[in-house]
Write a structure and sequence with these properties.
The protein is mainly alpha-helical. Helices cover 65% and strands 4% of the residues. The protein has a two-stranded antiparallel ribbon with strand order 1-2.
Length: 136
Amino acid sequence: MEIVNKKDCDIDILSHFIDLVERTMKRKFIIDKEFQKNNINDIIFSKKTSKKPDEELFRSFIMDVRKFYIAKESTNLNKIFSILIKYVFNEEKQELKKGKNEYEKYLKIKIPVGILVEDSQSTKDIIDNWLYRDGE
């Protein structure tokens, strides 16, 4: 039986995460200036005034992005934060904690949905509904 070193495992996960970030940043959807101007909400909910990306390009971009969010993925941002915090210096830990807090803050922002402004959901709720829902 092979003994797996936890640090080696963390290095593999971080390497995979870095590869995923690099691949995602090279997606046409990210580098295309036209789409950088659009709000992702406009693209997802299809406002008539927004130019839409090629469906397959958008789908491949989302497949990468969901790996940062879905809890069971090794590249989930919360898992990455937990790994990094073990290996950085104290000063960097503070910066990392700020980044994690910002990420969590943005997930809690309430966004109006539907016609009534009173009907709102957090960013996290919207993403969860979108990524975890059963096929419609």
